[in-house]
Amino acid sequence: MHVDLDAFFVEVCRQRQPELRDVDLLIVGGRRESRGVVQSASYGARKFGVRSGMPIGHAARLCPQATFVKGDFVHYRDASHAVRAVIERHAPAAVMTGLDEGYLDLSGTDLLYPVSLLELAEQVRNEIRAATGLDCSIGIGPNRMIAKIASDYAKPRAICEVRPGWERGFAAGLTLAALPGIGPKTAKRLTERGLTDVAQVQATPLGDLERLVGRDEAAWLVRRAEGRGGTVLRSPDLPKSVSRETTFNRDVSAVAELDRVLLLLTARVAGQLRDEGLVAGAIVLKLRHGDFVTVTRRRALSAPTALDGELLAPARELLAPAFAAARARRQGIRLLGIAAVRLAPTEAPDLFEAPGRTRRRELTDAVDRVRARFGFAAVHSGSVRGKNR
DNA sequence: TCTGGGGTCCTAGGACCC
DNA sequence: TCTGGGGTCCTAGGACCC
After folding, report:
1. One domain for residues A274 and A363
2. Which range marks the domain in which residue A185 is found?
3. Which of A55, A118, A141, A364 has its Cβ near the most Cβ atoms within 10 Å?
4. Nucleotide C1 C1' to residue A151 CA (A)
């Protein structure tokens, strides 16, 4: 069973800001003039062609009367946790796969529940509504892909069940672009080869498909077109990366400014690593030039760490040449980001570590305790503030 | 229209090793 | 002297998802 909240960001904002309740044209993502994209649009705004992922500026032109709000991650997270609690009550295995969606694995539970899957879905929907005030759509299917497509099909505020044996026929009505895993690029490439619909793939002999798209992709396409997909839910164990990035209001061409932001982003990443009991084995610096060319530079760390300074020093070493390269192209910097990768659980401190490092670790612990009580912004490295400020 | 922020997974080339 | 085949690890970029 796949549960998908309807216009999640928009509806959470309405819950938190009563003055938005009756605003029909509501767009979440940022202020009208911001350099961002639409996170979520109300169903009213969608009638004007506004879609998530669309630049805010474009949305403002399509729907000038709309109200634009930024939204608050903390509220999304709280609502998401409430939804998780509901789905966990109804299945032996349940995972959220985003803030606004999750799966329930109900295999082998037919004797456990005295009701049909459809009735169970009704219950889940009612309980989510009671717990959060939010509406959702639910898809039921023999595998994850079918359940997900079915919830899409059900939107908004409905339930769609695809029973075992119906997968192929259900998939036959879809475009290839509707299959999870086929994004804009792949859809375009397939269209150029004359493939647009699932039914076409179903009707094409494997050999012909292999000549069109290659052996591996042909096998993948056939599997999906037949309506087959994964049936196991596994919750991820360790995260693979922790990152922060920011797009500037205007392109930046002063290293000092980049350096200050890098320090802030690195502090955020390092803080989250410590919060989650993780250390990083490598870092990745990301720069987006004014012309949208994006480069990443990676560096392995001499020892795994979650200390601000030990992440910042190598990040700075990557920034200098990467910034010089942008300057050589006569481009300012549009976006700066830093990611911690090759993550591992924190281990007990080394008995023989240098005294200076012990002090830095203890200082970091103290900073973390202050932040736990008063928030992240309560304490900063002096250089974040810059001179004369 | 002018392009977010947080992630995951895949590919491909090069270094290195046996 | 010019040359295998298999494997792993590293880095960079790209596609995709919400």
Report:
1. yes
2. 177-222
3. A141
4. 66
